[in-house]
Amino acid sequence: MDRLASFGTDPFKPPCRGCSTYLVEPFIKCAECGPPSFYLCLQCFTRGFEYKKHQSDHKYEIMTSDFPVLEPGWTAQEEMALLEAVMDCGFGNWQDVAYQMRTKTKEECECHYMKHFINNPLFSSTLLSLRQMEDARTADSAIPFKPTDDPPRPTFDSVLSRDMAGYMPARADFMEEFDNYAEWDLKDIDFVDDDSDILHALKIAVVDIYHSRLKERQRRKKIIRDHGLINLRKFQTVLERRYPKEVQDLYEAMRRFARVVGPIEHDKFIESHALEFELRREIRRLQEYRQAGIRSFCTGAKVYERVKRVREDERRKRTMLCDALQYIQDGRACRQWLHKQAAIDAGITPVVTTITTTGTGRRSAPPLNLTGLPGTEKLNEREKELCQVVRLVPGAYLEYKQALLNECRRQGGLRLAQARALIKIDVNKTRKIYDFLIKEGYINKA
Predict the structure, then answer these.
(1) How far, in Å, are 85, 141, 156, 185 from residue 215 at the CA level?
(2) Which DSSP state fits 185?
(3) Whole-angstrom distance, CA of residue 89 vs CA of residue 104
(4) Which residues face 300 on adjacent strands?
């Protein structure tokens, strides 16, 4: 039924080749052009639209679903609408099914559905096989550990327990289930011999509903198990180490579709895009070699990469002169900076020393004036004070704040090292921003 219902939705209808609008039945299909098929709406067809090889005198077909399939008086479009209405409203809810159909009464919907989709021998074997496949897919099974593994036993409300969403590996189950209070509907049900037929049927219906809720609970567990999502933070760490940033963003966007396909198919999809990213990067590198006039990988490419690294090192050293300018008025601080650069040039790790200024050295910069800067009106008083002290424009602060909030929400917490890796500014400014957001309650420590 899922397959039949999908044909009635608008996104699967082809666009008109003349006006590019989605086609509405009836529409025209050229019998001589293709593949791909050449479709036209009635308006473009009456105007005699022609495009490339398509001519207005070609033979054509009228595409429509306004014809009977199973029974006279029921068109194919109404058959698909009936199946969609039953899936949306539920089997047996014929009043709502008829209201959604709008062209048939509830008696007609019930009679037609029972006759052709339930009691029809043609569909009985298909429905039985679909039900068996569904039962096998959602079979009640735990999420076991291997016998050789020693499962962790996190304490309640610990960091590991929160990271694993309350999963207890020793029991192969969650501390709090999906639809955790589903059993409450059964606690007062008692089957006795003197129940009337209606009351007995109602109790059976409640049990069936509870069984369907258990199947949904198990389906979600199976998705978590198959895709390895129990320890989400560990999974995120492996993802960051394995894939570049572009592939990680793609994975975040496509993660919602992981439940539709299996874990192997989803991983193949991500791996294929990771390979595409690597190929694109390699193509850009080869294009750079071509623009530089390199024709040999053995000699020319190696020399080019070595010269490129030397050029970048020289450019980095020239930018370091900006650091020296702020200490030029203090002789002691200038000597410390020169010793540090000499150690770096010699390949020695310099001793980290705090560069201090004397009383005659450069004074600390005054607070930043925020008057007229864009984004100032979006800050509260404490944020304005922080931007003045740190000398950070409001627009940049709001951008850094949003990035830290998103990362904290995604990770469930944020460390200072993660904040420094995310914001590429002075580490002291990053610490002040991080401490301020922690103090104000915007983010929490990991």
Answers:
(1) 22, 11, 27, 16
(2) G
(3) 15
(4) none
Neighbour-count burial for 30-51, b at 16+ CB within 10 Å, e otherwise: beebeeeebbbbeebbeeebee
Place of tokens 């509903």: 209
Whether the CB-CB separation of 28 and 63 falls below 8 Å is answered with yes
| 231 exposure class (CB count in 10 Å sphere: 0-12, 13-18, 19+) | middle
At 444, is the secondary structure helix, strand, or coil?
coil
Q: Tokens representing 409?
A: 């929400």
CA atoms within 13 A on the CB side of 141: 12
Q: Could you please report the per-residue DSSP string of 326-386? A: TTTT-HHHHHHHHHHHHHHHTT-PPP-------TTSPPPPPPPP-TT-TTGGGS-HHHHHH
DSSP letter (8 states) at residue 389: H
Joined together, the tokens standing for residue 221 give: 């567990």
By three-state DSSP, how is residue 426 classified?
coil
Distance, CA of 172 to CA of 151 (rounded, Å): 9
pLDDT in tens, 254-278: 777 777 777 888 888 888 888 888 8
> Tens digits of per-residue pLDDT, 136-151?
555 544 444 444 455 6
The token pair that represents 187 in the structure block: 């606690």
State the CB neighbour count (10 A cutoff) for residue 420: 15
* CA 422 to chain CA mean position, Å: 20
| Alpha helix segments (H runs only) across 22-158 | 42-46, 76-89, 94-101, 106-113, 121-137
| pLDDT for residue 137 | 55
What is the three-class DSSP state of 169?
Answer: coil
* Calpha distance 417→404 (Å, rounded): 12
CB 132 within 8 A of CB 140: no
